[in-house]
Specification:
Shape: globular
Largest sheet: 4 strands, mixed
Strand order of the largest sheet: 2-1-6-5
Low-confidence stretches: none
Number of strands: 6
Structural class: alpha+beta
Order of helices and strands: HEEHEEEE
Mean pLDDT: 93
Helix content: 10-25%
Strand content: 25-35%
């Protein structure tokens, strides 16, 4: 699939953006979430570095250009609804602007942990 046909298949939101989950390619660690418009997607898929659209500054930003904490593309996929990207990267340095490895390591919400039902509870009694 060409880059242009890939971009055409993406369901961008009303603001012309799609969320992009950034994941460390070899460990599966979720590093951050950013937003991309069609041009940021094109740059990411063709240049090998992750480019986002900054909603607050209304400009493109390529992760690491000022901080040195760059993200090198190792893979990319689109979810089943065509409305979320998963970009697998080699992260150099930290991913979060706060200086931490990921944006998801400082605020554990302490959810109730669900129990997976025992398969025997789901067996058909009429067998």
């Amino acid at each position: 699939m060409s880059v242009s046909s890939t971009i055409e298949s993406i369901s961008f939101n009303a603001d012309g953006l799609v969320p992009a989950i950034i994941q460390q390619w070899d460990t599966g660690e979720v590093l951050m979430l950013g937003y991309m418009n069609d041009e940021a997607v094109r740059r990411t898929l063709t240049e090998g570095r992750v480019t986002f659209w900054s909603r607050s500054r209304s400009e493109y930003w390529r992760k690491g250009d000022t901080s040195g904490n760059a993200q090198y593309v190792r893979g990319a996929s689109l979810d089943c609804d065509n409305d979320t990207l998963l970009i697998q990267v080699e992260q150099v340095g930290v991913a979060c602007h706060t200086g931490t490895r990921t944006c998801f390591d400082s605020r554990d919400l302490s959810p109730v942990i669900g129990d997976i039902p025992d398969d025997s509870e789901n067996e058909d009694d009429d067998v």
